[in-house]
Amino acid sequence: MTDRRDNEMAVPGNEDAALDPHASQPGDPIDNPGLPAHQPRPTDVDEAAEKRAERQVAAMFGLSAVCAVLFCVAYFALDIGSEPDMFGGIGAQNLALGLALGLALLLLGVGAIQWARKLMSDHEIVEMRHAVASSEEDRADTVAALKQGVDDSGIGRRPLIRNSMLGAVAALGLPAVVALRDLGELPGSSLEETVWRKGMRIVNDVSGTPIRPEQVEIGQLVNAEPAVFFATDEEGEPVYEGHELQAAKAKAAVILVRIEPSEISPLPAREDWGVQGILCYSKICTHVGCPISLYEQQTHHVLCPCHQSTFDLADNARVLFGPADRPLPQLPLGVDDEGYLVAMSGFQEPVGPSYWERGES
């Protein structure tokens, strides 16, 4: 590529080029690149404006340094202990640190921009574009060298060596497969099933207390999970614990919502999946598996905080917006003999993100 300023120096006696950096030069592919004449900035022609801009930039840099020092002062001077300093109901130290650091970075950036716009050299440069492909001779030489290497290796004339080498390279994939198997148990049906079973109680995900229908108010959302997570076996040991508990929780978490029955539009054969307007859906977003619980009471919409997928819980968790392409799986509900909410079966479809072997819901 050609720098116009280099061309000006390379052509003896080209006085016009020295005055006009965009003047046509010998060897240029076009006579006129089409750039308008250079327009000087106020700071290029007015010394007072130049000095004023210089003082402005220096002042911004100086204020940036002051803010950085104030950050350090606030860190040590303001208390965040048992009785923290407050300002307008906000922690004074957090407020001071945020303002000081934010202003320091802002002033530094604005000062650098002003420096570049008003004071740095401002000259247009024309760089002619040239072909970047190699010449036909170089390309032919490269192909010839590759062909010569193949001929010298004798791979075409020695099939025994060629085939045994290919077999050895392919066999290198076997150790990788074996090593991957050591990552853990095969998933089996775990991608399609959860621990939910018919008759399993739905409990609060924090306290583990079972839930009665009358305890859920209209417009309320309750984060819940199966009671088995709090159950123990005959020896008093937890049924689920450790990594098994966390893996099961990651798939079985649900949300309960109560909606006016007249506002619910159930799918055919799902008319009895709710109890007194209480519906239960998987808490796991069908996009990439984020937990959701941002609920809008008036619209019955629930929002995934990761990528803003929005589901209408009054309409079978239909996707309204965002990258998710499947509704949230619904868990059919019932009431046991003691009046507590229970699952009437497991989920009828896999929960969580879609994957290539997952059937249509």
UniProtKB/TrEMBL annotation:
Domain Rieske: residue ranges: 242-342
Which is one Gene Ontology cellular component term of this protein?
A: plasma membrane
Q: Where is this region: Disordered?
A: 1-50
Major location category of this protein: membrane
Its annotated compartments are: Cell membrane
Q: Which GO terms describe its molecular function?
A: 2 iron, 2 sulfur cluster binding; metal ion binding; monooxygenase activity; oxidoreductase activity, acting on paired donors, with incorporation or reduction of molecular oxygen
- Gene3D superfamilies from the entry? Rieske [2Fe-2S] iron-sulphur domain
> Which keywords describe this protein according to UniProt?
2Fe-2S, Cell membrane, Disulfide bond, Electron transport, Iron, Iron-sulfur, Membrane, Metal-binding, Oxidoreductase, Respiratory chain, Transmembrane, Transmembrane helix, Transport
Its biological purpose is as follows: Iron-sulfur subunit of the cytochrome bc1 complex, an essential component of the respiratory electron transport chain required for ATP synthesis. The bc1 complex catalyzes the oxidation of menaquinol and the reduction of cytochrome c in the respiratory chain. The bc1 complex operates through a Q-cycle mechanism that couples electron transfer to generation of the proton gradient that drives ATP synthesis.
What is this protein identified as? Cytochrome bc1 complex Rieske iron-sulfur subunit
Provenance organism: uncultured Nocardioidaceae bacterium
